[in-house]
From TrEMBL, chain B:
UniProt source species: Marinobacter nauticus (Marinobacter hydrocarbonoclasticus)
Name assigned to this protein: Nitric oxide reductase NorC subunit apoprotein
Recorded superkingdom: Bacteria
Keyword Ion transport assigned: no
Gene name tied to this protein: norC
Location of the Cytochrome c domain: 48-136
Lineage: Bacteria, Pseudomonadati, Pseudomonadota, Gammaproteobacteria, Pseudomonadales
Amino acid sequence: MKYESQRVAMPYFIFALILFAGQIVFGLILGLQYVVGDFLFPEIPFNVARMVHTNLLIVWLLFGFMGATYYMVPEEAQTELHSPMLAWILFWVFAAAGTLTILGYLFVDYATLAEVTMNKLLPTMGREFLEQPTITKIGIAVVVVAFLYNIAMTALKGRKTVVNIVLITGLVGLAVLWLFSFYNPGNLATDKYFWWFVVHLWVEGVWELIMGAILAYVLIKLTGVDREVIEKWLYVIIAMALITGIIGTGHHFFWIGPPEYWLWLGSVFSALEPLPFFMMVVFAFNMINRRRRNHPNKAAMLWAMGTTVMAFLGAGVWGFLHTLAPVNWYTHGSQITAAHGHMAFYGAYVMIVLTIISYAMPIMRGRPYGNSNTAQIVEMWGFWLMTISMVFITLFLTAAGVLQVWLQRIPESGEALSFMAGQDQIALFYWMRFVAGAFFMAGLVVYFGSFFIKGEASPAEEVRGPATADA
Amino acid sequence: MAERFTKSMARNIYLGGSAFFVLLFLALTFDTQLRAMPERDNRDELTEQVVRGKHLWEENNCVGCHSIMGEGAYFAPELANVFDRRGGGDTEVFKAYMKAWMNAMPTNIPGRRQMPDFNLSDSEIEDLAAFLEWTSKIDDNGWPPNIEG
């Protein structure tokens, strides 16, 4: 850690991980409700648990991105953070607002929550992933703007690197697109169209810039490969992400009202969306092969490789599986979508945040070359348990989805099973998904355990040839 | 990557490519929203009652279990075509069905998925029914493949 103010990333990372644990607990509740329908009913109905599960994910990833930014930007800019105090204030504001919102979901009836937060004045609630009360949405906007101010002031007074520029571009995009969450017309078709401006253009657009920047930063640090090479890759990857992903939004416009030309545009461009993820895999493995140093933080290296592979599989391959309009006609809104969603979010965004945490946390804890060997081995056990469990969650949901499509979607009206009759038929796969989810939880516990293992920090590394000044 | 491919070339592809596709996306959005959608989304019938129904749909977080035009949660049936599935395409039949259904919830059958009782009044249920009927008439390229959604 070269600048004292980078340390403000620590509370962000810790809080992100706490929320991550909450997300998984609610994931297990949901998984069980799929097969034991009345589990925790009426105390925690499915819709409440789902809202908690998905909103915790979004919020903890935002905490992770913010922590990553506070850690990376000062070091890249070679200057202290503009205002560590502001970063701390925003941390507490965001943590309090996030916690209150989740508690509101759990302990207040949703319609009552809408009433007491005066949703009528500016109705924004009750849309998937955008369930937050309007006041929380405004709070998120304010926190993000103040955060961007702090970051911009830092970046502007120092060295302007490509990593910083790309990261900040992604974050500005995130903030601007968030404004669409406030637009909720009475026309459902219009509402849905612009809802995707937040949801798709975040996860298949600007978030890829954030992911690319974090990955590039970690690879510069871990491999010592010349910055020029890494920055060139980063530009090509994010170019591909936006060139395919922006018009690729069209794969959501097939069946919600927009005209037929989206069937073609959405199919063609989204079929190319795996490209940037494939390039990230090639990028990471290439840089590691060409490394100029053997960084002793092997766990961080594993996360960096893992995130590219899993993002390619989850977002790329599983996305492609059902993105072509003639396929999507049958699979839209089935468990195939759920399978893709789980692996894509885990691979791309959960794992990139865990990558930067794995790299930065030991440094902030006074272990510049990584945790002790034992701690790293335990962390890598956590990595494998969680990652393999997620692969199985995805496979079981895919099997459930294929069966669902076969029973409920492909036969003609009259022949097809009703939704609930179909669900009964695929219960076995839901049970297996639940078991895989329990293993994921076990992996998370092991991962958390790795933070509490003491022992000698990793010694300084062996340098292969002259390391660059940056690394 | 070959040495001839420089960082500034990569940057130009990024800037030029994304600027072009942002503009194209905006143009397509204007065409979709201003030209195409008025023909497709049945907006002439978008009454105040339908909008009230949409807000009820939102304020009770219906999308937390159900999907509508395939979007939402996959825990409970698709509802963009429930007007056709359960109402047979008839407004009065559908209203009657909705009232009977909403008032029968939750079933409390052990082990089965449960829908909460949302304590809606009869007129609120009619608003919700109007919203679902209106939604069923959006031209969504014929999705879903069959009546089961």
